[in-house]
Amino acid sequence: MLGLTERMDKELAGAFEKAGYDPALGKAVVSNRPDLCEYQCNGAMAGAKAYKKAPFMIAEDVKAQLSDTAVFSSVEVVKPGFLNLKVDEGFLADFLQEMDGDERLGARKAEKPETILLDYGGPNVAKPLHVGHLRSAIIGESLKRLGRFAGHRMIGDIHMGDWGLQMGLIITELRHRKPELCYFDDSFNGEYPAEAPFTISELEEIYPTASAKSKEDEAYKNEALEATGLLQQGKAGYMALWKQIMKVSVADLKKNYEKLNVSFDLWKAESDAQPYIPDMVEYMKNEGFAYEDQGALVVDVKQEDDTKEIPPCMLLKSDGASLYTTTDLATIVERMDDYDPDEILYVVDKRQELHFEQVFRCARKTGLVKKDTKLTFLGFGTMNGKDGKPFKTREGGVMRLENLIADINEEMFRKIVENRSVKDKEAEETARIVGLSAIKYGDLSNQATKDYIFDVDRFTSFEGNTGPYILYTIVRIKSILNRFCEEGGDLTGGRILPAQNASEKNLMLQLSGFGNAAIGAFEEKAPHRLCAYIYDVANAFNSFYHETKILGEEDASRKQSLIHVLILTRKVLENCIDLLGFSAPDRM
Fold first, then answer.
1. How do 374-380 and 343-349 pair as beta strands?
2. What is the sign, positive or negative, of the torsion defined by CA atoms of 242, 248, 251, 255?
3. Using CA atoms in the order 89, 90, 93, 97, what is the torsion angle rounded to 10 degrees?
4. How far is CA 319 from the centre of its chain?
5. Is 367 left (phi over 0), alpha (psi -120 to 50) or beta?
6. Residues 6+ apart with CB under 8 A from 282
7. What is the DSSP letter of 345?
8. What is the number of alpha carbons within 13 Å of residue 546 lying toward its C-beta?
9. What angle do CA 144, 148, 150 make, to 5 degrees?
């Protein structure tokens, strides 16, 4: 179905054309002066030069063609040539009735669906997830959901780090601690054990210990470098140990991402790209793209119009070792071979912008991607504490993600118990649901590219622009609908009638914008725009609720209409929060 603004545009385009002007000038936009009108059209201003006519006169001509419109209840011309518009209440009610019966609530679907590979997550195996992994997971998951809703084929890839020096460090430390393990016996030719020789807790302690040793002990570091090289050359015992590290790590990662309601279609890692590296490097040499510079193999990626220095993209170090750039380029080759995506979208820390600029330029210059394949970098800002510095524990260390989630859940549990709104046995699960909304909405309501302050007190508040406030609004609607049913009401009867007051019409206008908000949030890669829309809807509903007798309405058809508006509000809000990656409880 056509959205409300598309229908207004159609009406305006027809009026411009009948008046003798270009129909493309007929576009409605939300008014920046809501005290004067709901929408406005600036086409007369844009067309004044082409038609050598005062915009006020053009606007008057167009207004004359809208004299019998069913779309607008009011059309006013304001100097120097704006058309101020108010939507007809009956037209709006009919639109919402149609929207209520549409499974997509009026949201258009992509005419040309694309395959979009989304790279988000990016944890290193054998390390616990910390707050630094939060934004990639939350933003990436939301974009995946928004893209699917828009009709695209979204493929989410976690892209784990599993093939660098960290593996050599873990192997070396294990060899020092447990030299008797069969993985270190070169003469061993049996089957390696099915069970790992460590738990996730032990593994998470081993890596920082080994890393610290390597910074103080040169011999230890060289031993780790040698172990890394042997692993990458396929040494049997080390490969078997690497598989155990991966198995234990992935199981733990899945458990922790599940707590965030984040999932991935692909559990790929750097190691998956390794088989593509030799042929890719050879191709770049043979085609004259790669050359040696001080022993290293590089590709020039600078361009004539660069305003800043862009260093060459390094493929291999002087000792022949590969780098992140090598792995990322080989991963692009793998993705093009396996999925031929229209776009590869990277949701990573904005401090990696130069790295990805080099990778993207190299991929394009060397023909690793098609000319029309989009390579997109969505760099996100830092999540900071109240001091404005990267979020830390009270002791000053990097906070584990599971500890942050636990702290938020504990705070929500305390508030819910204090309110005595939920029975004790339900309070813990409710706290988990509301806590997730606090974390996700608190992050997503900020523009992805900007740093933001993670304020636990503010994010867990039931007032203001927060996840709990949005959920509380949904729960309030559910409660009214439940009471309506308990009083013998039928949720399926009647139809939506024209609004009778300003707060009701404002809510209806806000609801009509769902399709544009949801699709626009994906097209702009901006989940914060959907958050802003949700907040506007919640505020509009709460104003309407406080000014309107709903269950106390005596006119049966009017009461049924109000109930329908509530049902549609709940549908819109629940669809929105699902696109952001969280849900609402029944009570809170």
1. parallel
2. negative
3. -170
4. 39
5. left
6. none
7. E
8. 6
9. 115
User: What's the token pair of residue 583?
Assistant: 């849900």
Alpha-carbon distances, residue 526 vs 190, 192, 263, 469, 581 (angstroms):
54, 48, 20, 21, 14
- Enter the tokens of residue 544: 């309407």
Q: What is the DSSP string of 40-96?
A: EE-HHHHHHHHHTS-HHHHHHHHHHHTTT-SSEEEEEEETTTEEEEEE-HHHHHHHH
DSSP helix/strand/coil, 32: coil
Angle at 334 between CA 329 and CA 335, to 5 degrees: 95
| The token pair that represents 106 in the structure block | 């009026």
Find the mean pLDDT for residues 421-426. 74
Q: Would you place residue 396 in the very low, low, confident or very high pLDDT band (cuts 50, 70, 90)?
A: low
Measured CA to CA in angstroms, residue 466 lies from 17, 113, 382, 486, 538 at distances of 45, 33, 19, 31, 11
Q: Please, where in the chain does CATH 3.30.1360.70 lie? A: 4-87
Q: 67 and 15 in contact (C-beta within 8 Å)?
A: no
pTM: 0.94
CATH of 4-87, one of 3.40.50.20, 3.30.230.10, 3.30.1360.70, 3.10.620.30: 3.30.1360.70
Tell me the average pLDDT across 99-115.
96
Cα(124)–Cα(133) distance, rounded to whole angstroms? 10
User: Residue 449 corresponds to which amino acid?
Assistant: T
- Per the document, the length of the chain is 588
* Tens digits of residue pLDDT in 489-544: 999 988 999 999 999 999 999 999 999 999 999 999 999 999 999 999 999 999 99
Residue 380 host element (H or E)? strand 374-380
492's CB contacts (< 8 A; 6+ apart) are none
